[in-house]
């Protein structure tokens, strides 16, 4: 009985990897084994950095809120303590946006906490 090899599936698998490696330099974009290693590494970085991006945005929102609350004579930790006990339902992203783009509204939120 002849050996059955699914060339269609294996070729498609290689084509997919090569398509993902498009734009890489030298052999990383032309040689399958090198491209496979480069793509696996890149996919690992993208997975890791999706989580890192969330971390950086949270840091940015906290820094913006800290700057805005200090202009009004309050620290960030005091603000968040009062804010969490008040039961308002806005998150740091929305609060930072208010502080940056709508300072009058943010001041109204600060006044409502006192």
Structure description:
This protein has 114 residues and is mainly alpha-helical. It has helices at 7-20, 32-71, 76-86, 92-101, 103-113. α1 (7-20) crosses α2 (32-71), α2 (32-71) crosses α4 and α4 crosses α5. The model has no long low-confidence stretch (mean pLDDT 94).
**Gross geometry:** rod-shaped
Query: First CA to last CA: what distance?
Result: 85 Å
What is the count of distinct domains? 1
What fraction of residues sit in β-strands? under 5%
Q: Compute the average pLDDT.
A: 94
CATH architecture classification: Orthogonal Bundle
Which sheet architecture does the biggest sheet show? none
CATH topology assignment: c-terminal domain of poly(a) binding protein
Q: Look at the structure and give the CATH class.
A: Mainly Alpha
- H/E series: HHHHH
Structural class: mainly alpha
What is the CATH superfamily classification? Ribosomal protein L20, C-terminal domain
Radius of gyration: 26 Å
Fraction of residues in H or I helices: over 70%
Which blocks of ≥5 consecutive residues have pLDDT under 50? none
Beta-strand segment tally? 0
How many helical stretches? 5
In short:
This protein is mainly α and 114 residues long. It has helices spanning 7-20, 32-71, 76-86, 92-101, 103-113.
Please supply descriptive tags for the structure shown above.
114 residues, mainly alpha, c-terminal domain of poly(a) binding protein, 5 helices, rod-shaped
